[in-house]
């Protein structure tokens, strides 16, 4: 498939002319506290989201209940944190507005809650965690195995009045529309991946058993938020075990508990109150399973180092094992441009460092 960039660039230009993103929250420094979190229960109102095979259970109700439970837990534990919800009842909220709510609130973290679903005949189960990412372009295959999911979650915009004007021609069903995501910087990827990792750890094997991992995908709502943002598909409405869990009060409460634990871990690190051991493990492995990451490789060694080793001078490296070598890469980003800019800084401390691409668990030099 030959892709023409011109209409896409027009879309992009139009978006920036018409939907300004508020100035970035400058409060992401280590000395600043996490003050505001936005919880985004997917779907609502006329948009039911996924529906169970017996038609009795709707995604919108599960996401709202888990979202409310999570909000309650955070409010109870952290009275000084403002918890905002994109909706706290069964109303329809436009996709773009969800991001606007978070941006206006100057949120430090955005948590979007969804439920997954598959066609009849498959029994896929488990939860998955998604950060914004480039659509991996391999041959004619424009993006990842999550294509159906991405399309479905983005297709919500088609229920909105006047969506063609609002989204300036972005068509969630058209792979070509997704090129706009490739042209974006993702300034909050590191923070998003860190929270994704916190969620992965906290979810563990209960109450939903199967972890489907951390992914990077072009979700509109994650793209439009100006802070670390993660979308969690908590389980499959089409899987009988997952559904039973999500239908039960105990199950939903357990999921909210896990999300709360992830929030607590993230906040502790953000606020600089995390125990010494908590931070480095967060990026212990390359979590970007789909799109490539770029970064600066500062070391390749036969001996595995602790990620808090003084050699790393405070950087939190990504470790990539290659044969008998351990490679350590810092300042990773899905944006080559951003990684290049950081490389210049890193090279001052590590003169032999060089720029690499990380994909599918392997590194290759970038020239
Ligand atoms: Zn959804």
Structure description:
With 367 residues, the chain is an alpha/beta fold. It folds into 2 domains: 6-271, Aminopeptidase; 292-365, Sporulation related repeat (Alpha-Beta Plaits), CATH 3.30.70.1070. The chain has 11 helices and 11 strands. It has helices spanning 6-18, 59-77, 95-104, 147-154, 163-166, 179-182, 189-203, 220-223, 240-247, 249-271, 336-349; strands at 36-41, 82-85, 109-116, 127-132, 211-217, 229-236, 293-301, 318-322, 325-333, 354-359, 362-365. The chain has a 6-stranded mixed sheet, sandwiched between helices. Strands 8-9-7-10-11 form a 5-stranded antiparallel sheet. A hairpin with a 2-residue loop joins strand 10 and strand 11. The protein is globular, with a radius of gyration of 20 Å. The chain starts with 5 loop residues before the first helix and ends with a strand. Bound molecules: zinc ion.
């Amino acid at each position: 498939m030959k892709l023409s960039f011109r209409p896409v660039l027009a879309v992009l230009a139009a978006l920036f002319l018409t939907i300004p993103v508020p100035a970035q929250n400058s409060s992401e420094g280590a000395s600043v506290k996490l003050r505001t979190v936005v919880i985004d229960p997917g779907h609502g109102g006329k948009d039911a989201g996924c529906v169970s095979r017996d038609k009795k259970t709707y995604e919108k109700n599960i996401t709202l209940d888990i979202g409310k439970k999570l909000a309650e837990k955070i409010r109870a534990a952290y009275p000084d944190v403002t918890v905002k919800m994109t909706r706290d009842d069964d109303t329809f909220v436009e996709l773009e507005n969800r991001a606007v709510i978070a941006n206006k609130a100057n949120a430090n973290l955005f948590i979007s809650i969804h439920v997954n679903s598959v066609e009849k005949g498959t029994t896929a189960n488990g939860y998955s965690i998604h950060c914004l990412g480039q659509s991996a372009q391999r041959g004619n295959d424009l993006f990842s195995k999550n294509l159906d999911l991405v399309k479905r979650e983005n297709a919500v915009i088609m229920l909105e009045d006047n969506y063609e004007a609002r989204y300036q021609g972005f068509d969630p069903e058209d792979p070509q529309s997704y090129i706009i995501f490739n042209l974006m910087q993702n300034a909050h990827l590191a923070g998003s991946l860190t929270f994704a990792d916190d969620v992965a750890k906290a979810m563990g094997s209960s109450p939903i058993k199967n972890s489907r991992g951390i992914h990077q995908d072009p979700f509109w709502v994650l793209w439009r938020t100006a802070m670390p943002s993660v979308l969690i598909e908590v389980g499959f409405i089409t899987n009988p075990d997952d559904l039973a869990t999500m239908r039960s009060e105990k199950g939903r409460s357990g999921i909210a508990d896990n999300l709360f634990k992830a929030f607590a871990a993230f906040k502790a690190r953000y606020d600089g109150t995390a125990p010494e051991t908590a931070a480095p493990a967060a990026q212990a492995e390359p979590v970007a399973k789909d799109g490539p990451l770029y970064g600066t490789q500062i070391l390749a060694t036969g001996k595995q180092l602790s990620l808090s080793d003084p050699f790393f001078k405070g950087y939190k490296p990504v470790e990539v094992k290659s044969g008998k070598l351990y490679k350590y890469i810092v300042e990773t980003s899905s944006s080559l441009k951003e990684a290049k800019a950081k490389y210049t800084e890193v090279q001052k401390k590590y003169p032999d460092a060089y720029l690499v691409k990380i994909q599918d668990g392997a590194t290759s030099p970038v020239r």
